[in-house]
Amino acid sequence: MRHPRQLEKYTLTYLGTAGLTVLLASAVLLILLVDNYNDTRRINVPLASLTFTTYTLAQALLASAVASYTAIRTHFETPPIPELPQAKTVALIPAYNEEGKIGKVIEKAKKHVDLVIVVDDGSTDNTALEAQKAGAVVIRHPQNMGKGTAVKTLIKAALKTNAQYAVLIDADLQHDPDDIPKLLEPLTQGKAEHTIANRFPQTKMPLVRLIGYKLLATLHALLIKPLPDPFNGYRAFTSKALHQLDRDYDPSYGIETEINHTLRNLPTASVPSKIQYTTATSKANFLLQGLNLAWTITWIWITHNPTKTLLLAATLYTASALLTAHVAILFNLSRYIRLTYTALALTLPTIATTLTAASTVALVITAKAKFSFRLRNENSNGYPLLSS
After folding, report:
1. pLDDT by 10-residue block (mean), the chain, 388 residues
2. Which residues are CB-contacts of 228 (< 8 A; sequence separation ≥ 6)?
3. Where are the alpha helices (DSSP H) in 263-338?
4. Where in the chain do CATH 3.90.550.10 domains reside?
């Protein structure tokens, strides 16, 4: 049985993939139904019932995907931040149950920055205590709220320190803290506002993973922005980038993709940095992760481009209407129903309706987020702070 957090994390992947799969199956069933009618001139009642049921199920799954993922992405409340020491350069570390590792990351990171800030995202071990002993300032979430929210808290914390530069680094030793100067260099030299570590070619991947990664990177390049290693979480930001993230970053599960989209118009540099994969990483379901990334990239494009999405939906509705008319004309002439045209005429509106729902919801959420940002009280009391 999957943990509720896993089910929540992959809701769009599960429901969206199931919805498209069932929609494809219903199109195939419709082709079989029409083909049987053309041969026998009779409607196969059981097959017709099954076709109708699968179409209805596909619509329900896709609608549920939009509704549930929207609910997940809009219930986060970024915790208010307490007063923090002032620093020019800070290291930002989101952590959840990283006892035994985080202390080593902090010890190495302290050599390259003025202040290390850790957000303990509701850990059940001694992550917070270990981070404090290693010399970090620790902000604790009262419960596990997800890495996206931890990153959002860290962004606000960095701004609270008036930092000119910030480095986002994982707590599990995948990223080498000694590469921090390399990530900061393009920023301090004024060449970029955002730096992303590039694991290639220093880090070797199994061939299947590499192919999947390159396909996802291509999708990312088409819909968001071309980057050498778009899903690498090891980042550095200027104060300008931090302010933009504070305003526009959506703390969802597609963390790196969200950051890339938010900062897509800022100059971005790429620097080589090797990733040390952990046992947990190597055992991760890369197919599920890949599907999740593909859905996240697609969702971001849909919801951040509502006008284009609505135009696409209108095009699909129009194409469906034209195909329906064409099928009717051909039927009147030949008394036969065209298989592919009929399947497309009935399938396209389902996709168009899903796109319309997602883009409409996005318009409402965007307006709400902008309003909430203006009303945010920066001086409210924060979560407990463990000072180093």
Report:
1. 56 91 96 93 94 95 87 62 90 94 95 96 93 94 86 94 96 93 96 95 81 94 95 96 91 83 95 78 70 91 89 96 95 92 94 92 71 54 52
2. 196, 198, 200, 270
3. 279-283, 286-304, 306-334
4. 89-284
